[in-house]
Each structure stands twice: as structure tokens, then as C-alpha cells.
Amino acid sequence: MSKEPALEPVRRPALSDEVIHRIRARIASGDWPVGTRIPPEPELMRQLQVARGTVREAVRALAHTGLLEVRRGDGTYVRAKSELSGAVARLYGDSDLGQLLEVREGLDAQAARLAAVRADESALDTLHHTLERRAAAWHAGDFEAWVEADWAFHCGVADASGNPLLAELYRNLAGPLRTAMAGAWATPGFQGADPVGHETLLTALRAGDAAEAGRQAAANVSDTRAWDDDGARRA
């Protein structure tokens, strides 16, 4: 197992904002994934060559934004990959499915419209394979794999929009949305293999039909909201 590369020492006067930048970069790169514990305080001091107070100030600031979580007696853990996702999880983690879908409806439709004119063949093929995984997981009763594939498809459409800001906003709904969707699996009549808004959306994307792609994406969200309004949630 290869040793994790050390953080580069801070060469200029020890400033907490520089330490924040170094820690944030390590998290954004994926070196410190969400849920992992970052090096303890003495190790951060050694690697960054800064004082204890500077490290503590930086960690407090990142914990305040939701990027880190300090667990007394246990250590400091990565809570989110970006301040935006941390803020979403902290502020809206308890939102119900209906509230989240009201936000998602606009993002889904716009992402689909843009992807219809910007997605390349590689992105479309990836979406096709993701839907195959989604259907297979549903028929196998593997709901965790189904949720992963379903979310991967929607995020893939957002990525294919060619708008990185839209894609980032969309991905940061992941945590709260997955939590809110959890109850859908036990709902009588829930159909996780429904092609509406998925296979039909992909057909519109391949045809380059922006208007139809937007309609199909909106239809999927409307279908989900109908389940929620009836007390039975669907995705």
C-alpha cells in the first residue's frame, strides 16, 4: 500500500487562510474523501510547519463552513467535498422530498435542454450504460445499487450540459436527496424501472431535441412529486 503524500510545508509566514487553502485542496482532489479522518493536529503542524493555533483556527473555519466535522476525543473528519455541499447538507439536510424536488425540477429540465445540444457520443454512451445498471439493480432487488445508478444518470446529464456551475449545484443535492428518497423503496407500487424521464430522456438527448429532453426530465420530477403529494414517494 503506497504511503499518502505529505502536505507541502507553508513557505511564507504561517497564515490560517493558507492552511485552509492547503486542506481544502487535499479534500477537493479526493486525497481525503468524505467520511475519512484527516491527520491529527501534531501531524498537520509538522507537515505544514505552522503553529498549533494556526491549525486550530483553520480547522475551526472549515468546520464552520461544513467542510470538516470535529469529533471530540475522536478527531476531525471530512464532512463534505466543498463548502457548498457542506452548507447544503447542514442547512437543508432535513428538507422533505417535495421541497428538494421543487428545486431539482428546474435544474433537471435546464440540464437536459443543454445536454441535448452539447452532449458528445461518449457522454451519451455512458448514460446508456448507467441506465442498464439501474434497470439491472432494480430487477435484482439491489436498491442501494439502484439509487447509485439512478443518481449517476441524473448527474451524468448535468455534466453533459457543459455548464460546470449547474453540474456542481446539482451534485450538491446528492446527500439530502438520497436521504429523502429512502422511504420510496418501501412504497407499494413504487416502480424504479419506469422509463419515463430516463430511457425516454436519453432518446431525446440522442436526437438533439432540447425541448423534448426538457419535457422528459420535467416529467420524471413531476411523477416523483405526484408520489410525494399522495403520501407515497417515487423517483
UniProtKB/TrEMBL annotation:
InterPro entries: GntR_C, TF_FadR/GntR_C, Tscrpt_reg_HTH_GntR, WH-like_DNA-bd_sf, WH_DNA-bd_sf. Keywords: DNA-binding, Transcription, Transcription regulation. Residues 13-81 form the HTH gntR-type domain. SUPFAM superfamilies: GntR ligand-binding domain-like, Winged helix' DNA-binding domain. Residues 225-235 have a biased composition (Basic and acidic residues). It holds the Pfam family FCD. SMART domains: FCD (SM00895), HTH_GNTR (SM00345). Residues 213-235 are annotated as: Disordered. PROSITE patterns: HTH_GNTR (PS50949). This is FadR/GntR family transcriptional regulator. It comes from Streptomyces luteosporeus.
